[in-house]
Write a structure and sequence with these properties.
The chain has 640 residues and is mainly alpha-helical. The chain has 2 domains: 60-199, Up-down Bundle (Butyryl-CoA Dehydrogenase, subunit A, domain 3); 288-383 and 417-640, Oligoendopeptidase f, C-terminal domain (Neurolysin, domain 3, Orthogonal Bundle), CATH 1.10.1370. The protein is 59% helix and 3% strand. The protein has helices at 14-17, 63-80, 90-120, 125-144, 148-153, 157-165, 173-182, 189-197, 199-216, 234-240, 246-261, 264-284, 290-296, 302-314, 316-330, 354-364, 370-380, 420-442, 452-472, 477-513, 520-534, 565-583, 585-596, 603-609, 621-638, and strands at residues 22-24, 221-223, 229-231, 387-388, 400-402, 411-413. A 4-stranded mixed beta sheet has the order 1-5-6-4, with helices on one face. β5 (400-402) and β6 form a beta hairpin. Bound molecules: zinc ion (ZN). Zinc ion binds at residues 23, 25, 428, 432, 456, 459.
Amino acid sequence: MKSKINLGQTKIFWMLFSSLSIFSLLFLGKFVSSAQAVDYSSLERVEVPAIYKWNLALFYPNNVAFQTDKALVEKKIINFKKNSGKLTNNTAIKKALDEYYGLAILVSRLSGYASKVYDSDTRNSEAIGLRKMTEKITNDFEGASSFLKPELLKLSDAKLKALAANKSFNKFDVFLNGLIREKKHVLSEKEESILAKTGNLQNAPYNIYNTFLTGELPYQKAVLADGTEVVVSPYNYVKYRQSSNRSDRKLVFDNYFGAISNYKNTLAQTLSSQVEANIFRSQAKYFNTAIEEALYSTNLSVDYYKNLVARVNKELPLLWRYLALKKKVLGLDELRYNDLYAPINSSFSGVYPYSEGLDLVLEAVKPLGAEYEKQAKLTLTPGNGRIDIYPNLGKATGAYSAGDKADPVPYILMNYDDSYLSISTLIHESGHSVHSYLANQNQSYLKTGYSTLIAETASTFNENLLLEYMLAHETDQEKRKELLGDSLETMRITLFRQAMFAEFELAIYTAAEEGTPLTAEYLNDTYLKLVKKYYGEAEGVVKVDDAYAIEWAQVPHFYFDYYVFNYVGGYLNGLELSAKALKDSAARDKYLSMLKAGGSAYPLDLLKKAGLDATSATAYDDAFKVIEQRVSELEKIVGK
Ligand SMILES: [Zn+2]
């Protein structure tokens, strides 16, 4: 299983400016088989026609140009160090920040180029070398500029405030104001250097976990109903839990969770160690709790997080109504936890060659106005060199949008397979890509990087536009059933399941912070209670087998503290804002102004710009109304 989270792809200046520019799709675990009209997946990259590939010559027309930039960067990095110890007056500070800014763009461009060459064919040894080379440059740059932040942090609050307000420092105001907030959590130079040296130790629990779960944990064989023998690996578990044969679904659930359960104490140790490492770091940096540290860079409060989870809890009956329909369609007298991934129909079917998918996307984004549509068209049209459409041998899997302002244009990587899910992915990535374009057009470099929460708002917004467009043009009841079923399944996984994960994280961190040891029994017990609550066991919605309590052990996201709430918030923001924008052009314009604001403000302030007070009790009323309408229509089609 490949989990599509964007950690590890964070922009290189994370340390200094806390911004992200690469956004990939949450892996929903859906397998799609479709009769693809054009299939390059078993061909070498050179055999794929150029119009379907991104044009990286927009970065550098040839190798000489790349080498010229590389040499320039190396020279500038050495020169940059000379600013160390000199940040005592405005002129010197301005010079250092300007040089840093220019270098950041150049370094980002080099690595943006290298990563795309690499993703085009990850087996290519030249590409591997190129990526290693730019990683080294990035590290050198980080090393050479490591003095910058500590020296600036030595300036008084009044001085930093004055600089931020100074017109000639306009490009740096968000960064300088951020330093004032950060001061409380910065240690002495010696302490910071000791803490930095614990970096590898802090990554160890996840590395051990990942190696074990994906490489060494012995998965077991099972014989499916048709006599096929399979090893129930994470990949096959995800594949066969969607079987239309009920006994196969139960077989892979029992087998997979049984295999993992044999190592429950080891897996509890790795997760517990990760939690302890994050708590240690947050305490060392004078935060009260790990969640405070995790939310700090986005200026979100713990109350915001708790309210978001509480709101989803309040709406659980909507999930239960959908699950009751699922049970009915599957013809079961009891819906069990291992039935959840069973297809309630063939998922929205049909073969959509890329040109048709593109037409649908462009029609769907029309409500966002001409400028938006024009940019989406420019990005997605084959031959413009901005999108890499089809899979080829060695190409990176999944899909992402890379929209760093340092890049010549925003790029999209796809593995388009002519399915409806592919179109949904395409419009999701176009949401990120046009967002980046608008932010890049309207903001200076350091204010373009938006947070994951805002990123997932823009992409979910577009996914919803596609669904609304499809529903508006589909009269066939069977097709409407498939569309609604698909969208509600996405809701289950992106909204309710991730909220359950977010609640679990808060529970185990809180327990650990209060001194409760995170044993396998404790984790199983806490997780099982949540699964039973979310899936309405007491209400007779889903029967949850106690043996599946171990599910927490196979979720890698729990190793990245407090990340999954972004999916919950992004989903609700996107649905709420798109519902409003489709009704009212003033709401649409406010939304566009949020996209243009990029990362120039914190998430809640950006959402306010878009007309959404995410902290209000009524924040997501429209979003849940939309979900309610979809459930109601499905109830009408299927019959309660
Ligand atoms: Zn995304």
